[in-house]
Amino acid sequence: RKSIEDYMDMFVKYKLKVEEAEALGMDTSKSFITELAGYRSQLAEQYLIDTAVTDSLIKEAYERMKYDIRASHILISLPKDPTPEDTLKAWKKAKEALKRVKTGEDFNAVAVEISDDPSARDIPGSANSPARKGNKGDLGYFTVFNMIYPFENAAYNTPVGEISNITRSVFGYHILKTTDKKPAMKRAFFHHIFLKHPFNGTAEDSMAVKQKINDIYQQYMSGKKTFDELARQYNEDNTAQNGGVLRWYNVNGLVPEFVEASYRMNVGDVSEPLPTLYGWHIIKLADKEDVGSFKEEFAGIKQRMTRDSRANISRKQAIANAKNDFGFKLYSKNLSPVKELLDSSVFNAQWKAEKALAMPKPVMKIGDTKYTQYELAQFIEKNQQRTGKGDIDFFFNERFQEFADKKVLAYKDNKLEDLFPNFKSLMKEYRDGILLFDLMNKKVWQKAVEDTAGLKAFYETKKEQYQWKERAKATLFFCQSKEIANSIQNMLNQGLDQDSIIKFANANTTLNLSTREGIYEKGDNDIVDMCWKTGISEIIESNKSFVIVDVHEIIPPGIKKLEEIRGLMITQYQDHLEKEWIKELREKYTVDIFYEPFVPMYQSENN
Fold first, then answer.
1. In 287-420, which residue ranges form alpha helices assigned H by DSSP?
2. pTM of whole model > 0.90?
3. Cα–Cα dist 605/519, whole Å
4. pLDDT per position as a tens digit, 575-590
5. What is the b/e burial string over 3-33, where b = at least 16 CB atoms within 10 angstroms of the residue's CB?
């Protein structure tokens, strides 16, 4: 019962403060409304997605995280707003490419010929940059979240050595060939020795680089020089200055040769020379991190999903559910008049919604709320493009879908308190908590800091409780050796000032002497306790140091000054202000407590 009464007392105080905040109009201030809206927005997020879909995607991502994939691709690109003609043309081109590679043509050769990914082909050298060999469609190794979700799906669902069906993404159509799948190396930390391929070099130049990297490797293997020394001497990139240290990488940040070598290496191993697109490397695996348990990886996966297109899958399912729950109705015949108002100005952000000002017919209905043609036109005006060109039909369909999705989610958002009692309860806690904090800050916490006169008056009523015992004002000299301590003691006895003593003792190294000054009560410092009288002490050996104590003054007992206990006084003054304030609130507001017998929720009425 005592616990219940204590909690009830705290609850009453809490409610009194919230009541006062409301009476002062704090719940109507702009800053309060903005802060509460921010909390609500964050809290609402989990109610505006399909949690079952999200959980399934998290589990899928974790299972994929356990493996690294290597794949090549052919890209047939599409513009951002493709016309039906654009789409059909790209689709036919992708189908023809798929047919060629399925009937035996070399995948990489076809990628070089027709892929719209420029990295597939060789890039000739220029005055400012060396030539670079194309990757022939080979994207190297990657893992979950490294690629856009449709591409990732195709890669993980296509067996090694096989070719995927045509996959659509925001970039266009992809054809993939999965070339390898290995147990994941989550991250690795490398050092390397690196020689560049010669710029516009001949075959002889290339052979000379290969011979040089082999010679460097032999130097390392013979033990004549360390890896760090060789990297500092020979590296032809900016890692030379730090001994070839790179950084943490996952597989997507590494050339395939590094990844393949690392699978065969243990931490501390050094590879034989490796050729890559960039030159020759000798790599050292300095550290490696493997995939953790589902529990360990869960938070990271969930966070990454918020920035990934997977989030749209969960969101779209939530929208579909909401449409079904709230009775979504589409008025298709009223959409065409709005689309007919559009022209090419929407691709230069010049189109005006006022063209639809006299168009009040509904385009859709959610629950009992209708959304008009003019509202849709306003949304289109705010979400125009600056591409300069595009397809009107594609643009309109995209904008309407965005308009409908936003309105459906907004409709559900407005009803969260009615739909979810727990959400309503949490929002009440957030609301009251913000009010309580703001009012406490104003009436108690900040007031106690700023009210210097009030704090001083309060201190006068309490100061007798805070007394210093007898104290010693002293300087401690910590010497590295007995010889130095003898010198310091002599100089102190001769009356030399402290700065001169420190300068003399530390002329060669600052390790010879260090000092510490303070005012100590008995029990604060064992060494000072041994020298409780004014003057210079004998040399005391302590923790491999030799200590001399110069006691300047023995201070008699006395009351602690306000500035010496300001933090403590502010805390107590805050408690005092709150108690006085609560008395005022109890007098201002009536509190009724009902003491009916408590009936557990699980107890039936008959019992």
1. 294-305, 310-326, 336-341, 373-382, 392-414, 416-419
2. no
3. 70
4. 999 999 999 999 999 9
5. eeeeeeeeebbeebbbebbeeeebbeeeebe
